[in-house]
Amino acid sequence: MKISRFFSTAMLAATTLTSASLHSARAAGAGQTSAEISSLKRQLHLLEQRLDKLQQGSAAGATKSKVAANSQARAALTTSNGAKAPPLAAGALVSMPNNRPTICTDDGENCVGITGRVHWDVGGYDYHPNTAATSPQRLNSGENVRRARIGLAGKFFGDWNFALVYDFGGSSDGFGGAAAGSLPGGGLSGLENAYLSYTGLKPFGGKMAIEGGIMDIPWTIDEATSSNDITFMERSSAQVIAVNVAAGDFRSTFGTRWWNDSFWAGGYVTGPTTGSIHSASSVAPAGATEQFGAVARVAGQLISGNNYSLHLGANAEWLVQPSRNLVTNAQTVSFSDRPELRIDPTALISTGAIANASGAQVYGAEAAASYGSLYFQGEYYWYNVDRGASTGLPPIGAPSLHFQGGYAQASYVLTGEARTYNASTGSYNGIKPADPFSMRSGGWGAWEVAGRVSTIDLNDGLATATGVAGGRQTVYTAALNWYINGNLRLMLDYLHGDVARQQSPTSTADRGATFDAVAMRTQLAF
To answer: 167-176, long-range: CB within 8 Å, 24+ apart, which pairs?
Structure first.
């Protein structure tokens, strides 16, 4: 019936077009004015547009009819005992959730989408070393493509999830070097995600994921929050140092997590990060054994309502077997971080290589709370390093080392939006503007102000030959974030930092510094 109407309308339009053309010709022959001819041409153009719309509507209706026919056919192929026959070949449906190009079968059981993010940072430092003994003596202002990721993510047969993501940015922000095995942008640049996850089990009234590969482990609440959704341009130094021991991004792992609406628990065994040397016989760079570790975390919302929530959690991390250099026989660990900004990749606090390390542990506590547009979050960590490896290298029998650090932050969304809870990761989602910026509709997006104070102390055993003088860093950060829409965000951070550090465990010569920095990030994600 619809097809008949379509052809009838098309024939009527064609007849009208022909009549209009003949009338135009006669009128022109009789000396008709150019204005009248233009009017007739506009009428012809309108008729052509109506025909185009009719054709588009017919094509869309045909697609819907095909999907409906497939569904009805599958429903009909059911035996008398209720067992379903093998499904017919599914059609492909294209969608754009959050502007991510995605193709799914019409039953929604199989999907693949293109995912990507670009974080481009520009900024500068006002850096003041305390003395000529301070290292470094300067920091470089400029720009950095912090992340530039592209990849695929999706699912198949409903319960199997996967991702394959490559990072072309300077994600490690280190020095790749020219040696064999080095990578542009630093040792960690490259494969960021390559994992498989099964979510078909639903024990104890919740959901469960069994997963492995290269992935970003949701260990600590800040790490479980996507880098697209974190409040500040960089996570705190205390958190970065904690996850780098045996968790964090680019990490090889296998484990499981379970969650329901209010509780999250997970545990993973972990290996090296991508970019690590796997050869045992290499000399340049030196061959090394692969590290082995494990992480565990429990967290959840103790209180939640329509516009408020309280989240608490605890976590633990174990570096069971540090990597051993097979050329020098050294087995070391080191803790270091940049001053919570990556424009210059130089670390201001560092323990250096802690010799004879047989293992390390990190224990942490996390808390977060929301009340309307107001949000609070904080974490604290305790770090231990055991020095008892039988490498034959000094220091032999040295006491264990103990460090600590943490942060507290608060944010407020001026335009009224609030962070929602993500039960699958035990963390909070980012801000989604209720009224995206648009010159046509007059929307201004979402605006957020935030502040954070963080501290990390990498000193222990000072005044002893076996101590470590890694330094103590405190950073105060203020931020203004503009969420233009669901895919674009601009971030402006101001940082003031103080680094107290002495020359060595037994020398009190000042190697400290202070700095101020301003930086802006342009973020695109889908």
So the answer is: 167/191, 167/192, 169/118, 169/119, 169/145, 170/144, 170/145, 170/146, 170/342, 170/345, 171/146, 171/147, 171/249, 171/250, 172/275, 173/144, 173/146, 173/338, 173/342, 173/345, 174/345, 175/345
CA distances from 425 to 224, 238, 312 (A): 6, 20, 13
For tokens 């640049």, the residue is 189
Write down the pTM of the prediction: 0.81
Mean pLDDT of the chain: 85
Per-residue pLDDT tens over the stretch 183-235:
544 555 589 999 999 999 999 999 999 999 999 999 999 999 999 999 999 99
The confidence score (pLDDT) of residue 232 equals 98
Select from 499, 503, 496, 500 the least CA-distant residue to 517: 496
CB-based contact 59:66 (threshold 8 Å):
no
- DSSP state for residue 122 in the 8-state scheme: E
- The β-bridge relationship of strands 513-525 and 488-500 is antiparallel
What is the share, in percent, of the chain residues with pLDDT greater than 90?
Answer: 73
Contacts 24+ apart (CB under 8 A), 300-305: 300/262, 300/263, 300/264, 300/426, 301/261, 301/262, 301/263, 301/421, 302/262, 304/262, 304/421
Q: Which residues contact 484 (CB under 8 A, 6 or more apart)?
A: 433, 436, 437, 445, 490
| Cα–Cα distance measured from residue 172 to residue 188, given in angstroms and rounded to the nearest whole number | 5
Higher pLDDT, 458 or 25: 458
The neighbour count for residue 33, using CB atoms within 10 Å, is 10
Question: Can you give the pLDDT at residue 379?
Answer: 98
